[in-house]
Amino acid sequence: MAEREDWFADTEGNLRPPDEGLKPPTDEFGRDDPASIERERRRREREARRKKSRKGNEPATPEPTAERPAPRRRRRSRPETTATTAPTAPAAEGTPRPSARERAAAGRDAVRQRFRRGAGGGSGGGAGRAGKHRAGGAYRRRRLFALALVLAAALGVWFLVAFFQPPPFDPGEGDGSVTVEIPEGASAGDIAEILDEAGVVSSAQLFELRLKLAGKSDEIQASTYTLASGMSYDTAIDRLTAADTGGPVTVTIPEGLDRNQIAADILPEGVSSDEYLELTEAGPQGFDPTRYGAPKGTTSLEGFLFPATYELEEGQGAEALRDQQLLAFHQNIARVDMSYAKKKNLTPYDVLIIASMIDKEVQVPSERPLVAAVIYNRLSRGEPLGIDATTRYETGNYTEQIPQSDLEADTPYNTRLNAGLPPTPIGNPGLASLKAAAAPAKVDYRFFVVKPGTCGEHSFTGSEQEFNRLQVEYQRALQAQGGSPTKCP
Hints:
Layout: E1 8-9, E2 15-16, H1 34-57, H2 100-119, H3 124-164, E3 175-182, H4 188-197, H5 204-214, E4 223-229, H6 233-241, E5 249-252, H7 259-266, H8 273-280, E6 309-312, H9 318-333, H10 339-343, H11 348-361, H12 368-381, H13 389-395, H14 404-407, H15 431-438, E7 447-450, E8 458-461, H16 464-481
Antiparallel strand pairs: 1-2, 3-4, 5-6, 7-8
Helix pairs in contact: 4-5, 7-8, 8-9, 11-12, 11-15, 12-15
């Protein structure tokens, strides 16, 4: 067995016999480390050279006697060093060398100490710093949480004030005057956007919420409202949903419109379109169209609904409007001189029909007597009038081009095919057209054509050849530049 001096401590502090040194050394973690292996090889070479030099210099050892053997001098070996531990100082002279068990224990303690330092928890100071860090982090978290609570409370207070607008934050009635138009079918969001863009309310989103919360989203009618700038939400809602108590309602009916056009485009809010059409389908008791020369059995009030400006008191509707129109017709027809028309065997009802066609065809007031003259001249010759406005009235087509099939349809209102007047007026004419229809201009015109590039002006002629030439020019203008403007002042 090898001498105890030849034993050595491995990198883990364990005492090993020299024959185990043949195994490849490992680092303190049990892994092969080329650097450690190289250092161990060099250390062993140095140890072998020292042993060899000591053996050559030692004197001959006397033979042991029976007496007490001389104490054997212990060889001092150099402390081992590794790549990861600092070298220890050499033992002082006379200090006993630690035993193998002590050296092994010291090596193990060194390894454990290094592990604890690498893990960061090897000292009381590190643990104190970690505790302080944890305490500081908790304090910062508490501060951030408190700040978040303060911000949330501030936002909540702001929202409540902006939403409910309590005094002294209530803007009340607002300032100035702002006119807004609420279209048909507008939703709560649409109404809120309209008021916000007009400056009536401060926030469209909050006003929409208030409107829905009040349950009045469906109570706002399509109409034009006069509000104020910067109104409170409550005030704006009350004004939009309150009944109109602003006095009489003014209704202006333009000349020449028929019953359907008046009901669809002219009647104000509060006057029912359906009721108006029903009430004008037949006259009230005491009003008889045959008194004006209408054929027996005529009931429609078309032509008798005189165009003018009327006022309806609060609570009045379609019936009051109709009655005022009939009264105005009775008053104005009495101002028309019917003597010339009677000479031509025309009744007041015929004059009413001619006047309705004049209002549909004429845009320039001075042309009314001329168009009336064309109608009179063609009637006296037995020629079809060729006025397409009668077909438009029958079909209700006032915006699109008339289909050829409608122009070729053999109906009482097709004045291209049928001579004479249509069965009824095609609109409700004003006083100027009634007078022109009763007293036409003294000219021999039989034709009129729209002048290209004008706002409804006409060229008049008594020659069919000239009419055909004017018609060709008009069609060319339509193709080249759209003919007459579609929108005129």
